[in-house]
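Structure first, sequence second, as always.
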């Protein structure tokens, strides 16, 4: 074992001991650093602390919570590991920009609303296309089928998050208009206007880099790492309804996976 790892473990034990003594003296079984984390986390969730805003310093947290600097430092370090805050040497600790987790089949609008983050979708392109046999096959349609092609920029908290291109049958969903998608969710539109309830998705995920066009739209450098996700989304009856090709900023998204043995 290296001296560094040994000192790190000793430091963690000292923090834990301090936490227990403070918790016991206050009649609270929750460790002090956890209480600090919960306080900061609640302020972020309630919108009292927003992305980019400065979090109290270690010294301020230690004073207001009646704990040591070491305990306050440990609390901020844990929040940084969770991705809730970013620490900048010589500047301070700031609320990190929100990150979106891919762990449930819900719309972007629903996802933003669940986290009290202002979200917006801007339709870049809307048209009927032909000659997409591979996409038609994914949707279990004949090769020459007419498809609605919808390209949308997803924005959250005032910045671009992802670029998605959706394809669905133009004949099955006749009457769908650009204005419908600028006002709300395509998931909601399918369920409310076309009586099509979505159930599950098959997804292929890989990494790619931003080409010049995508980089400009997503406001990232050319060649920046992106998550690329190809989704085929099915209805409750097992029918393929929607194919989505999405490019997602890797600094704003997390792919959450649970594995079983």
């Amino acid at each position: 074992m290296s001296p560094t790892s040994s000192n790190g473990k000793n430091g963690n034990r000292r923090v834990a001991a301090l936490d227990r003594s403070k918790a016991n003296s206050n009649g609270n079984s929750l460790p002090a650093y956890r209480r600090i984390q919960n306080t900061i986390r609640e302020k972020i969730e309630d919108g009292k602390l927003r992305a980019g805003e400065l979090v109290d310093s270690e010294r301020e947290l230690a004073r207001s919570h009646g704990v040591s600097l070491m305990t306050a430092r440990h609390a901020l370090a844990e929040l940084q590991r969770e991705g809730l805050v970013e620490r900048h040497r010589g500047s301070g600790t700031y609320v990190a920009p929100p990150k979106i987790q891919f762990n449930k089949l819900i719309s972007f609008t629903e996802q933003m609303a669940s986290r009290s983050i202002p979200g917006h979708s801007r339709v870049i392109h809307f048209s009927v296309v032909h000659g997409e046999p591979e996409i038609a096959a994914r949707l279990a349609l004949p090769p020459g089928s007419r498809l609605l092609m919808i390209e949308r920029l997803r924005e959250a908290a005032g910045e671009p998050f992802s670029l998605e291109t959706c394809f669905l049958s133009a004949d099955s969903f006749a009457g769908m208009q650009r204005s419908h998608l600028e006002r709300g969710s395509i998931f909601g539109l399918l369920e409310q206007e076309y009586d099509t309830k979505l159930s599950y998705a098959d997804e292929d995920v890989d990494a790619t880099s931003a080409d010049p066009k995508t980089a400009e739209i997503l406001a990232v450098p050319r060649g920046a790492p992106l998550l690329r996700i190809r989704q085929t989304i099915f209805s409750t009856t097992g029918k393929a309804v929607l194919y989505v090709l999405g490019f997602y900023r890797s600094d704003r998204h997390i792919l959450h996976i649970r594995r079983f043995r």
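Margin note: The first helix runs from residue 3 to 25.
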